[in-house]
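User: I'm writing a short report section on ligand binding and want a predicted complex to refer to. Could you take this sequence and NDP and write out the structure as tokens? A short remark afterwards would be nice.
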Amino acid sequence: MTDSSFVNDVMETVVARNPGEPEFHQAVLEVAESVAVVVEKAPRFAKAKIIERIIEPERQFIFRVPWVDDKGDVQVNRGFRVQFNSAIGPYKGGLRFHPSVYLGIIKFLGFEQIFKNALTTTPIGGGKGGSDFDPKGKSDMEVMRFCQSFMNELSHHIGPDTDIPAGDIGVGAREIGYLFGQYKRLTNTSVGVLTGKGIGWGGSLVRTEATGYGLVYYVTRMLHDLGKDWKGQKVVISGSGNVAIYATQKVHELGGKVIALSDSGGYIVDEAGVNLDTVRRIKEVERGRIKEYVQAHPKAQYIEGWQGIWSVPCDVALPSATQNEIDAAAAQSLVNNGCVAIGEGANMPSTPEAIAIFHENNVSFGPAKAANAGGVATSALEMAQNSMRLDWPFEEVDNRLKTIIDAVYNQCTAAAEAYGMKGNLMAGANIAGFVKVANAMMAQGVV
Ligand code: NDP
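Assistant: Sure. The structure tokens for the complex follow:
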């Protein structure tokens, strides 16, 4: 289906211009393979060098973040913000605080964000940022001092009509609060410059739950197309953070049973169905480790090493921890155990080899760009409420989220069918997102 010389040319350019950034190369390859057929049919995109422009961030910032720890020692981290593409609206995308963060991770996430945001039907462009700072094991005051120092620089580059960051791994309500407080102090404005804010000071109801809920709404459509629903489905979810927790809540509400969750240390299996109150106490209140779960539920098991979670037999798998967490062996194990659907809660959690195995074995595969778009979509709803100085009730935001996810799913199926790849939601997501952004770029000239 793909024009290999087009893909080879794109990859040669990307690899030459962005050496040592394998995650970014991987993200571009997936999109290039999907959209080759579009570019072939629409030579105007090639003439306008849309692909060459789309793989080059509009702007990128790398900055020093010095801060003082509780012992009085000076620490130095590195901060990033990549403003990737503003063709359809202001840059929008989360901030990730994790020791593995470097430019290549932020670029892969920012690149994915362009197409994801286009699919949400809301007018937002793509961006991403973060730092190699690790909030784990830091005191609240250390996290606050870091966030304030990070915002001292970031504040020069963002704004409610320019670039609106949100959370991601390691950036939750606490970090957004400290970042927002510092932005307000520096600029003497109270505007919706960050999303994921707390309820009562500009946050939107449902934003906390949105990525997990949206993921489950998306997979509901996948299951429906297989003639199934959630009732009685055994579900394995990796991670035990924001996405995993609220996906678990929604799966349980719809009649499925989540039997395994993980963190970077290992995973728990509770065949009775994981008790979400216990998980939320450990992860959200005590900021503890998932292995503590078995103290409250002795019949559950804890197994060291997070990769093993994909050997737990399940009907549906929702990878919701991090990139490349499902490799070929993990994918094969899911297939052998009879898994019928994969919904990506995390960004790029499946390697290209794993995706090929899912497709070859007719496992329904919901790609991250579409399946986890509920988070950023609800961030766009938070922006809308901030601009109107209004707060919508929970049901209203949740209904809008459901409508958006339905639209995302419909775009994926329609685009896949239109380009001869019926049922391939990954190709559909890449094509539908790309066409929307490409058309906007064409209309706006060579900028
Ligand atoms: P959190 O920080 O709340 O939770 C992340 C979870 O994943 C934790 O349990 C963490 O374990 C685990 N994890 C993180 N890195 C690794 C790793 N390298 N190896 C194994 N486990 C790991 O993050 P979120 O839930 O917000 O994000 C999870 C994924 O979802 C990310 O890929 C993110 O980009 C994506 N996403 C998030 C959105 C959001 O709205 N929050 C929106 C769209 C996508 P530990 O605590 O041990 O590190």
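A remark for your report: The longest helix spans residues 394-418. Residues 210-362 form a domain with the Rossmann fold fold (CATH 3.40.50.720).
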